[in-house]
Design brief:
The structure holds 2 protein chains of 2 kinds.
Chain A lengths: L1 H18 L2 H31 L10 E8 L6 H13 L4 E7 L10 E5 L9 E8 L3 H5 L3 E4 L8 E4 L8 E5 H8 L8 E4 L3 E9 L14 E9 L2 E8 L4 H15 L3 E8 H8 L1 H35 L1 H9 L4 H37 L8 H18 L1 H8 L3 H4 L4
Parallel strand pairs in A: 4-10, 6-10, 7-9
Antiparallel strand pairs in A: 1-11, 1-12, 2-11, 3-4, 3-8, 5-9, 7-10, 8-9
Helix pairs in contact in A: 2-8, 2-10, 2-11, 3-6, 8-11, 8-12, 10-11, 10-12
Chain B lengths: L1 H14 L1 H28 L11 E6 L4 H4 L14 H10 L4 E13 L6 E8 L2 H5 L4 E4 L13 E5 H7 L9 E4 L2 E9 L21 E4 H6 L19 H6 L7 E5 L3 H20 L9 E5 H6 L8 H31 L1 H9 L4 H38 L7 H5 L4 H27 L3 H6 L2
Helix pairs in contact in B: 1-13, 2-11, 2-13, 2-15, 11-15, 13-15
The chains are: A alpha+beta, B alpha+beta.
C-alpha cells in the first residue's frame, strides 16, 4: 500500500522534472562528480594516514638523533667515534647509543645490492642498510623475533672508501619472507652483489626503510662501524629522560673535542614529522578540496532549489489552495531532491568504479576501491543534499496560497 | 555597446545579491583551489633558465648494461648520473662551446669568529658560471688556467660570504673549508633555480654556498655529498683509486651547444665514445646514450622532479574546478530564467538574439572576472597554507619559491577564470537569448 502510494507520488515529480530538465540534470552531474572526487580524495587521504602512522619498529618515543661531523677528519677516527659513543652511553638517563650512516626515516638511504646466488649474472635488488654494533638492538629498541643480535667480535670497522662485507646480518621479517618465502629464514645465506656471502643470524619484527616509500620494508642491519667523517648518532634514553639528555648531549661531546660540528639534534618525533611533510601536505590539500567540494555542491543545491521555488510559486499556491498541506509541499521538494541526488550518485558510483580501473593502470601505489566504500560516501552526499534543500523547501512551504495565485 | 551591456550586467548582478554571491563564490573557490595546485606544478616543472634551456645538454650513458644485468622484475633504469671515467673523457674531448663536470660537496666552514658550521658546495669547472649565467656580486670566477692547476681557490655565495666575513668583501681573503684554506676569488649574488636542474638529486634544494675547482676536489679525494650509486655496476675496488675507476655514478656533466650543428656533433661524439667503450671491452653491450636539454631533463621520468602526490592533487583540483563550473552553469540558468520578462521586453523593442546573447555572456564574464580576483586571493591563501604545511617561511628560498605566486601564474589564473566562466556561460546565454517575447509579455 505504502509502496504503491510512493510510486504514485514519484510520477508527478518525474513529470515536473521533465518539464524543466537543464537545472536538475546539472545538479545531478555535479552530485556525480562530487561523489567521484570526494570518494577518491577520502580514499587517498586514508592511504596517506595509514602510511603516516605505520610503525617503524623502533622505540620512537625514547629515541633522539644527531649528526656529528669533524672539522678535519681525525687520524684516529675509529677511536674518536668509539669515545663519543662511550661518553653518550655513560650519560645519565641514556640507555644506549649507536653510530650509523642512516636510520629509519632518516630521509636518505644507504643501499646495497643483494642476490640469492653468487655471480654477476644473478638478478639482484637493492636493500636499505643500517650499520650497528653489539649495542644496536638496545639502542633502537628493536624487537628480535628469532635468532640473535651481533657480538662485539663480529663488528667490522669500514672506512668510507673501502669495501668490507660482514658475514652476518639481521633482517626484517618482511624481507626474510620476501627473499626466502618463509619468515623463518634463520641460517639462510644471500650474496652482496656479486659474490660476498652473508648469513641471516637474526630476524627483527620490523624496521622501517630509511626513506618514505610505498614499498614494503626491505632493511637489513650489518655489524659495521662506518669510519666516515660525518655520522649520525642514534641515542635511546630511559622513558621520561629524553629532554635532559637531548639538552646536554652537545656539551658532553664538545667536552671531548671542540673540533667538530654537531647539528640536527632532534627527537625522533621530529624526524617522523619531517619525513611525512609531503604526505601530510597532500592529505591536507585533498581534505580541503573535499570540504570545499561538499559545500559548493550544497550551495548549488540551495541556489537551484530556491530558483525552482520562485519559478513554481503559482503552481505551489495552486496546490496549497486545492488542499495540499505545508508538509506536502515541503515533502515534494525533499523528494525531488532525493530523486536528483540518487540519480547523480548512481551515475557517480559507476563513473567512480570505471575511473578507478583507469587510474589503477596509470598511477602506481593506488589500490582498488571497494563498492561498499563508494556507497557509504554516496549516502553521505545524499544526506548532505537533503539538508541543503531544507531551507528552500521550507520557504516553498511558507508561500501563502492567496498571494501566490492572485496574479493568475 | 560594450559599456552599456556592462552597465546592464552590473545592475542585474546587484539585483540578486545572493545568487551573484553564490556564482562568484563557486567560480572563485574552484579557480583558487585548482590554481593553488597548478601554480605549484608549474613551478616544479617550470623552466629555470628559459633563454638557454635549448642550448644546455646533459648526456646520459648506460655504463651498467642495464638490460643485460637486471632481472626482468626490477624497474629498469639507466643511471641518471655519470661515472668519473666518463665525465673526464667528456671534459678532455672538449666538444661543446662550454662544458663542466661537477659534483656536490659537504664541508665544514671554520670562520675567523664563531663556531664552525656545515655548508654545501660544488666542485666544478669555470664554465659552470658562464653556462648557467651565475650573477657575480664581486670578484669573478677563476681563470681557464686554474681549472687544471688544482689550486685552493673558491667562489662563495653571498649568504656564506656575509656569514663568514661580516661587513667586508671577502675577495682576496682566505676561508677554511673542511680544514683547508681557500683563497676567495669571487662572491655571487643570491641565485635560485627552481628546479635546480643541473643536479636534480635535490631538485628543490638551494644553489650551493661555495664552489671550488673540480680538479682540486678530486685531488683532495673529497667525497660526494649527493647520491653515490653503484647500482648495476658492481661494488668499487678499495680506496680512492677504486672509487674513481669504478662504474659507480655520482657526477653530473653539462655542455653548452648553441647550434644544431654543435648538437649533432656532440651526439655523434657520444655515440662514437660509447661504441669505443664497447670495442675496448669495458661495455659488453650495445651502446645506449641520450642527450637531454634542460626541459627534457626535468621531465625525464627517473629524475622524479614532480612527485606523484602532486599529480593526484592536480587531477582532483581539476575535477573540483569542473564541479564548480557546473555549479555556476546551474546558477546562471536560474539567474537568466528569472529575467525572462526583461529579456522578452528588450527583444520586443528590437534587440536581436545576438544582442541578448552578448548581454548574458558579458554578465557571466563579469562574474568570471570577479570570481577570478577572488580566486587570486584564495590561491595566495592556499599557497600560504602549503608553505605552512611544508614549514617554509618566506618565498625567497628554493622551497618557498615553489609555493609563491608570480605575475605569470596570476595572469594565467585570471585568464583561466574568465575563459572557463565564458565557456560555461555559453549554454545558459544561448537559452536565455531564445526567449519567446510574445509568450512572456502576454503573461505580464
Amino acid at each position: 500500500m505504502t509502496l504503491a502510494n510512493g510510486i504514485l507520488n514519484v510520477l508527478p515529480l518525474l513529470r515536473a522534472l521533465r518539464r524543466n530538465r537543464a537545472g536538475p540534470i546539472l545538479i545531478g552531474i555535479q552530485v556525480a562528480l562530487t561523489l567521484v572526487i570526494v570518494c577518491y580524495s577520502m580514499f587517498i587521504i586514508q592511504q596517506y594516514l595509514r602510511h603516516m602512522n605505520s610503525p617503524t619498529g623502533i622505540d620512537e618515543a625514547n629515541i633522539f638523533t644527531l649528526t656529528n661531523a669533524w672539522l678535519v677528519t681525525p687520524n684516529d677516527l675509529e677511536g674518536r667515534i668509539k669515545g663519543d659513543l662511550a661518553a653518550i652511553r655513560a650519560m645519565p638517563g641514556v640507555l644506549d647509543a649507536v653510530a650509523t650512516l642512516s636510520y629509519p626515516l632518516a630521509g636518505y638511504e644507504v643501499g646495497i645490492s643483494i642476490s640469492p646466488a653468487p655471480g654477476p649474472r644473478q638478478p639482484h635488488a637493492g636493500v636499505h642498510l643500517y650499520d650497528v654494533d653489539e649495542h644496536g638492538l638496545a639502542a633502537y629498541g628493536l624487537k628480535l623475533v628469532a635468532g640473535r643480535w651481533f657480538t662485539s667480535t663480529e663488528v667490522l670497522s669500514v672506512p668510507f672508501d673501502e669495501r668490507k662485507f660482514p658475514a652476518e646480518t639481521v633482517v626484517t621479517a618482511a624481507l626474510a619472507t620476501r627473499l626466502f618465502r618463509t619468515a623463518n629464514a634463520l641460517g639462510q645465506v644471500f650474496y652482496f652483489y656479486p659474490d660476498h656471502p652473508c648469513r641471516i643470524v637474526g630476524i627483527v619484527e620490523r624496521a622501517h626503510n630509511a626513506v618514505v616509500s610505498y614499498r614494503d620494508e626491505d632493511s637489513i642491519f650489518l655489524p659495521v662501524l662506518p669510519l666516515n667523517n660525518a655520522l649520525n648518532y642514534v641515542v635511546r634514553t630511559r622513558p621520561g629522560q629524553q629532554a635532559s639528555a637531548l639538552q646536554s648531549v652537545d656539551r658532553t661531546l664538545y667536552s671531548l673535542s671542540r673540533q667538530r660540528v654537531i647539528q640536527n639534534v632532534r627527537p625522533y618525533s621530529a624526524t617522523r614529522h619531517r619525513a611525512y611533510t609531503e604526505d601530510r601536505a597532500n592529505a591536507a590539500m585533498l581534505g580541503v578540496v573535499c570540504v570545499l567540494m561538499l559545500s559548493v555542491t550544497a550551495f548549488g543545491v540551495i541556489g537551484l532549489t530556491a530558483y525552482r521555488v520562485t519559478e513554481r510559486r503559482q503552481h505551489i499556491g495552486m496546490r496549497r489552495a486545492l488542499g495540499a498541506r505545508r508538509v506536502d509541499i515541503f515533502k515534494q521538494f525533499q523528494a525531488e531532491n532525493l530523486l536528483i541526488a540518487s540519480a547523480g550518485c548512481l551515475v557517480g558510483i559507476v563513473a567512480g568504479l570505471a575511473c578507478n580501473l583507469w587510474l589503477l593502470s596509470k598511477l602506481d601505489g593506488l589500490q582498488r576501491m571497494s563498492l561498499s566504500y563508494i556507497c557509504i560516501v554516496a549516502i553521505i552526499v545524499i544526506v548532505l543534499c537533503q539538508f541543503a534543500v531544507l531551507w528552500p523547501a521550507f520557504r516553498a512551504a511558507a508561500i501563502p496560497p492567496a498571494q501566490a495565485i492572485r496574479n493568475l | 555597446m560594450l559599456g552599456y551591456y556592462s552597465e546592464l550586467a552590473i545592475r542585474s548582478l546587484r539585483r540578486n545579491v545572493v545568487l551573484t554571491t553564490l556564482m562568484v563564490a563557486a567560480v572563485g573557490v574552484g579557480i583558487g583551489t585548482s590554481m593553488t595546485v597548478l601554480t605549484t606544478l608549474m613551478a616544479m616543472s617550470g623552466n629555470p633558465i628559459p633563454d638557454k634551456s635549448k642550448q644546455l645538454f646533459a648526456p646520459q650513458i648506460d655504463n651498467w648494461g642495464v638490460k643485460l644485468h637486471r632481472s626482468a622484475s626490477d624497474a629498469e633504469f639507466v643511471p641518471i648520473q655519470l661515472s668519473y671515467r666518463d665525465v673526464t673523457a667528456f671534459m678532455s674531448a672538449h666538444v661543446g662551446v662550454r662544458q663542466a663536470a661537477m659534483y656536490s660537496l659537504g664541508l665544514n666552514v671554520d670562520p675567523a669568529v664563531g663556531r664552525p658550521f656545515p655548508a654545501l658546495g660544488r666542485a666544478t669547472y669555470r664554465d659552470f658560471f658562464a653556462m648557467f649565467e651565475v650573477p657575480f656580486r664581486s670578484g669573478s670566477v677563476w681563470g681557464q688556467a686554474e681549472d687544471n692547476k688544482r689550486e685552493q681557490i673558491a667562489v662563495l655565495s653571498s649568504k656564506l660570504a656575509d656569514r663568514a666575513f661580516p661587513q667586508i668583501d671577502p675577495v682576496g681573503r682566505t676561508i677554511s673549508l673542511g680544514g683547508r684554506d681557500y683563497r676567495v676569488v669571487g662572491v655571487i649574488r643570491p641565485w635560485t633555480l627552481t628546479p635546480r636542474f643541473y643536479d636534480l638529486s635535490a631538485a628543490f634544494g638551494e644553489t650551493e654556498d661555495f664552489y671550488i675547482p673540480f680538479t682540486t676536489a678530486i685531488d683532495e679525494q673529497m667525497e660526494s655529498n649527493g647520491p653515490f650509486d653503484c647500482g648495476g655496476g658492481g661494488e668499487p675496488a678499495q680506496g680512492w683509486p677504486g672509487r674513481v675507476n669504478s662504474e659507480c655514478v655520482w657526477l653530473q656533466f653539462w655542455v653548452e651547444l648553441p647550434t644544431s650543428a654543435y648538437v649533432r656533433n656532440f651526439r655523434s661524439f657520444l655515440m662514437a665514445y660509447a661504441a669505443d667503450q664497447q670495442q675496448s671491452g669495458r661495455f659488453h653491450w650495445p651502446p645506449w646514450v641520450q642527450l637531454h636539454d634542460v626541459t627534457d631533463w626535468i621531465a625525464y621520468k627517473d629524475n622524479h622532479v614532480v612527485p606523484q602526490g602532486i599529480r593526484i592533487n592536480t587531477l582532483m583540483a581539476g575535477g573540483f574546478l569542473v564541479v564548480c563550473l557546473v555549479n555556476a552553469i546551474a546558477l546562471m540558468l536560474a539567474k537568466f530564467a528569472t529575467r525572462r520578462v526583461e529579456l522578452a521586453i528588450r527583444r520586443a523593442m528590437g534587440a536581436t538574439r545576438t544582442d541578448l546573447f552578448l548581454q548574458c555572456l558579458i554578465e557571466s564574464l563579469i562574474v568570471g572576472l570577479i570570481g577570478g580576483v577572488l580566486g587570486l586571493g584564495l590561491t595566495a591563501a592556499g599557497l600560504g597554507g602549503l608553505r605552512a604545511l611544508h614549514g617554509v617561511s618566506g618565498t625567497q628560498s628554493a622551497m618557498g619559491h615553489l609555493y609563491s605566486q608570480n605575475i605569470e601564474a596570476a595572469l594565467v589564473t585570471l585568464v583561466v577564470a574568465v575563459i572557463a566562466t565564458g565557456c560555461s556561460a555559453l549554454y545558459p546565454s544561448l537559452r536565455a537569448s531564445r526567449v519567446q517575447p510574445g509568450l512572456q509579455i502576454k503573461a505580464l
